[in-house]
Automatic annotation (TrEMBL):
InterPro entries per record: Glyas_Bleomycin-R_OHBP_Dase, Glyas_Fos-R_dOase_dom, MMCE/EMCE_epimerase, VOC_core
One Pfam assignment: Glyoxalase
Native source species: Lentzea albidocapillata subsp. violacea
Recorded GO MF terms: dioxygenase activity; metal ion binding; methylmalonyl-CoA epimerase activity
Keywords assigned: Dioxygenase, Metal-binding, Oxidoreductase
Keyword Metal-binding among UniProt keywords: yes
BP terms from Gene Ontology: L-methylmalonyl-CoA metabolic process
Name of this chain's protein: Catechol 2,3-dioxygenase
Length: 140
């Protein structure tokens, strides 16, 4: 897998949130023209993208903010059991610290922090654009 792509309405907010999770901005670009339209299947597209990577460089998320055509709601605030890509999971070192750092960026705890068999503390948070993120702090 090379990357996962997500469309957002506020590129800067998405980048800031995921930087707080430890991801690194790999690069930004403006995208438009026949090549892009041919690949994504939208005529007259105009967007800005930001590619972010995990610190080890293994995984990437490409965020796209479309200026044209106008983005449509794809059900970004659907619950976890809705069909489609529903969440991204991150392994973190300190769950409480991570939640405190994400709160100023609008992160909201979905329900509870739970501990499974003294192995992992985990929870879901709702991030920018309603993106569901699972945070996992392994205890062993």
């Amino acid at each position: 897998m090379h990357h996962v792509g997500m469309t957002v309405t506020d590129l800067a907010a998405a980048v800031a949130f995921f930087e707080e999770l430890g991801m690194e901005l790999e690069g930004k670009a403006h995208m438009e023209g026949a090549f892009v339209d041919g690949v994504i299947g939208l005529e007259g597209s105009n967007s800005d993208i930001a590619m972010m990577k995990t610190p080890d460089g293994r995984y990437r998320i490409e965020f796209s903010q479309f200026h044209a055509p106008r983005s449509i709601d794809g059900g970004s605030r659907a619950p976890i059991h809705a069909l489609g890509l529903r969440h991204i999971a991150f392994t973190i070192d300190d769950l409480d610290d991570t939640l405190a750092r994400l709160e100023p960026h609008g992160a909201k705890l979905v329900k509870n922090i739970e501990t499974y068999k003294d192995v992992v503390r985990t929870c879901y948070v709702c991030g920018p654009e309603g993106i569901l993120i699972e945070l996992c702090e392994y205890l062993t």
